[in-house]
Amino acid sequence: MATLTLKSEEAYIxxxxxxxxxxxxxxxxxxxxxxMVKTHCCFCGVQCGIQLKVKDNRxxxxxxxxxxxxxxxxxxxxxxKRYMQNEHPDRLKAPLIRSEDGFREGTWExxxxxxxxxxxxxxxSYGKDSFAFLGGASMTNExxxxxxxxxxxxxxxxxxxxxxxxxxxxAGAANKMAFGIDRAANxxxxxxxxxxxxxxxxxxxxxxxxxxxxxxxxxxxxxxxIVIDPRITPIGRTADLFLxxxxxxxxxxxxxxxxxxxxxxxxxxxxxxxxxxxxxxxxELVKKYTPEHTEKITGVPAASIIKCAEIWxxxxxxxxxxxxxxxxxxxxxxxxxxxxxxxxxxxRIGQEGSGYGTITGQGNGQGGREHGQRCNQLPGGRxxxxxxxxxxVSDFWGINETDLPGEGLTACxxxxxxxxxxIKGLLSISFNPLVSIPDTARTRKALEKLEYxxxxxxxxxxxxxxxxxxxxxxxxxxxxxxxxxGEGRCIRLNQSVTPPGDAKLDWEIICELGKRLGQERHFxxxxxxxxxxELTAASKGGPxxxxxxxxxxxxxxxxxxxxxxxPDHPGTPRLFxxxxxxxxxxxxxxxxFEYRPPAEDVDQEYPxxxxxxRVVSQYLSGTQTRRIGSLVDQYPEPLCEMHPILAGKLGIxxxxxxxxxxxxGEMTLPAQVVKSIRxxxxxxxxxxxxxxxxxxxxxxxxxxxxxxxxxxxxxCKVEKAGSR
Length: 724
Ligand SMILES: Nc1nc2c(c(=O)[nH]1)N[C@H]1C(S)=C(S)[C@@H](COP(=O)(O)OP(=O)(O)OC[C@H]3O[C@@H](n4cnc5c(=O)[nH]c(N)nc54)[C@H](O)[C@@H]3O)O[C@H]1N2
Ligand SMILES: Nc1nc2c(c(=O)[nH]1)N[C@H]1C(S)=C(S)[C@@H](COP(=O)(O)OP(=O)(O)OC[C@H]3O[C@@H](n4cnc5c(=O)[nH]c(N)nc54)[C@H](O)[C@@H]3O)O[C@H]1N2
Ligand code: SF4
Ligand SMILES: [Mo]
Prior knowledge:
The chain is α/β, with parallel strands linked by helices and 724 residues long. Helix content is 30%, strand content 19%.
């Protein structure tokens, strides 16, 4: 068996260079394909339709798929290169087993038997909950369902969560609190029909490039665009009004805008009294948020706050869309609820061209959070703490309700519990926490403490370097199933190729482990079609009802929006029509949260805001896009964006090396001096690992409700570290 010599992150980074600009022998193929497969992009939550060209069981290129209604053939820079990952030489083709001198390729028998015996040993010594499971939202609905079932029935642990905990949970929690349901309220086809759009906390043109098309169409139809961000992002550059908010101040900004709306009577009192609750407390709260007071907190000029209210308040139709910029905060839920107040107070929701939505991030950011891989959730979006829901699911699975674990820890809390020595074993799939969660030094310490760690991935990601067993799992194009995009549209992924070498499909690995843990009858699946049948049946009557869907219907109808509770139900593209919300009383809820500052605000020692996010050509922790040479060429390494005023004060010129330090760590990287960022803030994208990882610096403090970390604001100091 071959011995791989990649032991440390550093060794990995050193050897990473040569494989970056990988081209297959003979170049990228321009021969006639054997077949074209209609499927979807593996990256963001827009889930554009694409046709993959397949030759000799390899994806060799792509063609647009013009009939798919979301993108009509258009693709962004990542979408057009996504096919280049499947032949990469780093692709894992067999399980890796840790040995004295690094990893060696092993057999599946070794991988399974070592894992099962370690699960048994750890759970017998320390209790069932000492073994945790971490899933992800890049995987299909079928796998999300399977992960939840595996943790509850095979591992019998309460500690299962997923990487969406780093992503959309603030929006999810706020949506449940305000509307009683966690889904975007409108299909994106409503965007071009609106009169005003607020885009807040989203670098839409870089992160959801295809959605800009919807925004431009709205503008062509006369809509006004308002963008709220500490940076003038590409979509911000063309906005009618741009509000340069100081990081971590959105709830105050919303209260200020609402103050002006109340003062001018731009409030729909009839809608509020017929369809909502809690308005009085909000009206009272916003009284003190005068434009001047709000300017002091947020850094947004009072005149712009008034202007925003003047555009938004009296409009006939409006849409408010946001992403992680307002959600990645210790008051992420409060920020989202404060923006929802701006929507509810006008009554403009549940109508064609009027509504609200969070834009989900990962390919299955929506479906990944629906089918039971969250620590507090059972299939069908059911609540693990609700006795009736517990009974429904345990009856469906044919287990005793008392054997169904309760609510466990969330993703970052699981890493904390590993660090404290309370969790001893971990199985993760489609998650790279060493790069993606805040405070890398602590994550590394936690990983070193694990008695057993198994990772399922198609590349050896940075976290998996700490594993005892790495299972060679499957790429999106190697399997079939469904995902649910940012609108709530469940769509069909078709299989293009089979896994190479000895690699297996993700679900085959989970099912085999389930069987070996003694639960044969629960994991006897032979195809994702069977899993979909089970998950849709399990969802029947639940808050997230897919029971009218089949793989065939989903494919034939170019996607179906849930709820879809019967085979002849058309699905529900637009929620809340007629002002009917999903709470038991049918009313939406206002929430009055006083503004509070971030967990770590700037001070004399650390005087500059540090914020993080994305660039168009890289994706998440970079495991996929850092392997696609042409994407790397577009943005090869992290840069520290800063304003010329700040740069001037610190004696820094464009591309000088700067040292950025927080209370948790520091990094040295080139400066990118740009006028498009607030002078009190620096921005670093987070797609790199090791010494290039932005999460060495970020703060792991969590929102008390959603348990999302504060990726979007902490305090740093910056100094010049050298010239280039
Ligand atoms: N190219 C690319 N596209 C992606 C991804 C990727 O990695 N790369 N990832 C996908 C995923 S999983 C996600 S979650 C989405 C993320 O999509 P977005 O949320 O749009 O992207 P981010 O860059 O995380 O942050 C968005 C913006 O928030 C701003 N911001 C920072 N602090 C604040 C604040 O306090 N208030 C406000 N209003 N704004 C603030 C930042 O300046 C940034 O422009 O993108 C998806 N699409
Ligand atoms: N500083 C900072 N940190 C952030 C953010 C930020 O804005 N700033 N954003 C956060 C957000 S929104 C997110 S979503 C997270 C994402 O963080 P992660 O989920 O850790 O990032 P990924 O790169 O998706 O890592 C997942 C791993 O899954 C693998 N993978 C992808 N698809 C599949 C599949 O189908 N099967 C299997 N087996 N493996 C698969 C990839 O190869 C990769 O190794 O990062 C968070 N971290
Ligand atoms: S917008 Fe998102 S889904 Fe569409 S091609 Fe780009 S990354 Fe893929
Ligand atoms: Mo995300």
